[in-house]
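Format notes (please read before filing issues)

Several people have asked whether sequences and structure tokens are stored in separate files. They are not. Every record keeps both together, in the order shown below: the sequence lines, then the token lines. Line labels are part of the format and must not be stripped during preprocessing.
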Amino acid sequence: MLKVKDLCFAYGNIPILRALNFFVKEGIITSILGSNGAGKSTTLLTISGLNRANSGTIEFFNERIEHLAPHEIAFRGLIHVPEGRELFPSLTLLENLEMGCAISPIARKAKAESFEHVFKLFPVLKEKKKQLAGSLSGGEQQMLAIGRGLMSCPKLLLLDEPSLGLAPLVVKEVFRMVTEINSHGVTILLVEQNALRSLSISEQVFVLENGSIAFEGSGKDLLQDQRVKKAYLGL
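Then the structure lines:
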């Protein structure tokens, strides 16, 4: 579904991604783990076109996309829910969701169905649909950000730190929602600091160190890996 090959990106003279290679299988949850500064968020930004790769290739359903603008990538069904949510705080919850439909004719045509799907996943959003996005709690804002992504009818959903800064009970709910979204057929590429929960829900995991893949495996196998236990689980 997604193939990243020899991807390099630098901020000025500082290399961040160093010949990065990995792939995402259709229909599953894939996670990228790594310490702060390893290049996880930069990877997602580069895949979605918000960063321009210095070299290497990105293929989405066998089409090279590394040269495309972000809106062209999103039009193809590769949707990025960024770290920090990036909502429109002065717009209502409903208006924020509607922004997700603007990306393609397919999303606009499916608008009513998408609203029904999002409100079924996140009932609290339906209750507060006329509130300003800036007035919502952190957990509600994260639900809204994910919901807006779903309104775009994604084939692949990139989630960057969806549990960041949330209370433990809300974190648990966020990961439950991620697995439920995947169960409805949406492929997910997840970047998370919460390694234990990420490993628990991911069929495929890549561990990023200094801008390249250090090792990989299934979430189940890496939960038993001594390197992962020591470096990311504190065991």
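For reference, the curators noted about this record: The mean pLDDT is 93. The first helix runs from residue 40 to 47.
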